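Section 5.1 Outputs to date
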Amino acid sequence: MSAAVRLRSTVSQAVGGLPRRFWWLWTSTLVNRLGGFVVTFLALYLTGDRGFSPAYAGLVASLFGLGSAIAAVGGGVLADRWGRRPTLLAAQLGTAVSTAALGFCQDRVAIAVTAFLVGLASNASRPAISAIIADLVPAEHRVRAYSLNYWAINIGFGVSAAVAGLIAAHGYLALFLIDAASTLACAVVVFVRVPESRPESRPESRPEQRPAGAAAAGAVAAEPPAGLGTVFRDGRFMALVAVNLLLAVVAQQGSTTLAVDMGLAGISAARYGLVIGLNGVLIVLLQLPLTRAMEGRSRTGLLVASSLLTGWGFGLTALAGGSAGFYAATVAVWTIGEIMAAPTMMGLVAELSPARARGRYQGVYSLSWSLASFVGPAAGGYLLEHAGGRAVWGACAVFGTVAAGAFLLLGRRPAPAAAPAAAGTPAAADRAADTVAAEPAASTAGA
C-alpha cells in the first residue's frame, strides 16, 4: 500500500462518519481560536508592556479565572434550560465586546474588572459546545469527536500564538481587536449553521434527529430531571473532577507563570510566542495519530501516564535557565501528556452525563478548569515572586505525581451499579462504561 493510500485511509478513519452539524461547530471553533490571542499573552502584556508586577498579572489572570468558574456552572445550567445554541451565541457576543473593551482599559481596577467579564463571557460557551457534541455524536464516536474538536482548538492556538508574538512587537491593541473579531465570526457560523441540539427540543419523528445513544424516541423524556445537586452528589464523577483540578492548576502555568518566568530570563515576547506555539503545533501533528495509538489501552494507564508527563514536564522547567530551546523541550513533554488526557477525560464526562443534564455535568467539569485558572495564576505568580521558579516547577511535579496516584486508586474502585429504573435510558447506556476503570479506552476510529 502506497504512502498516499495509507494517508487517505488514516484521514478517512479519523474524520469519517460524523454529522455535518458537528463539522460546522468544529469550523466555528477553529475560526475562534485562530484569533485567540488575549488569554495567552495577557500576563506578558501586563508585565512587559504595561509594567505591572508579576503578582498583579497573576491577580488579573485569577479574576479572569473567577469569572470562568462562575460561567462554568451558570453556562451549564443555561445550556440545559435555555438551550445550547442561545447560550453559545450570547456567550460569544459577550466575549467579543468585553475583549475589545479590555484592549482600551488603562486603569488597574478597570483592567481587573474587564478581565473578570472576559472570563465570565468566554467560559459560558464551553459547557454548551461540549453538550452539543454529546447530543449530536453517537457514544461510540464521541472520543474521536472531542479529539477532533480539541485538534481544531490547537490548530488555531498554534497559529495564533506564533503570529501574535510578531503582532505584539508592534502594539498589543491589535491583539485584542482581532481576538474580538474572530469571536464575532465564530458567532456568525453558529447562528447560520448550528441548530439547537438539546434533546427535548429536537423532533422525534425523524430517527436521525433522535439523541445520540437513545434506544427510543421517548427515552430522554423518561429520564428524571437532574439538578446541580444531582451532579455534586455523584461521588465518582466529583472525584474525577477533583483530580482534574490538580492537573488543571499545573496546566495553567503554561499560559501565565511560564510567560513571566521566560520574560524574567530575558526571553522576548516573539520568542515566547514561538515556544508556547509549539504546544499547539505538536497537538496538530500528534493528536490524531496518538489518539489512534491509544485505542484499546487501559484508561487508568493513559491517565496515569498523562499526569506524570504533565507534572514532570512542567517540573523540568526549573532546569531551563535562559535557554529557549530547553523551554521548548519541556513544552513538548507536557504537551504529550495533554494530548493523552484531553479526549480521554472528555469522553468519560460525556459517558457519565445523563442526556437531560449534559450541560450541568459539562459545566461542573469545566468548573475544575475555571477554578484552576483562578487559583493557578495567583499561586504561580506569588511563588515565582517570593520563592522563585524552582518552587513553582517543583510544585507542578508534585501535583502531577499526586494526580497519577489518585487515578490509580480510582481505577481500582468498582463502578457503582446502575439503578434498575434507569435501565434502557440514555443515562444507563452512557453510564455503562466504568469511569476510570482499567478498561480499554473507547475506540476513536471511524466504524
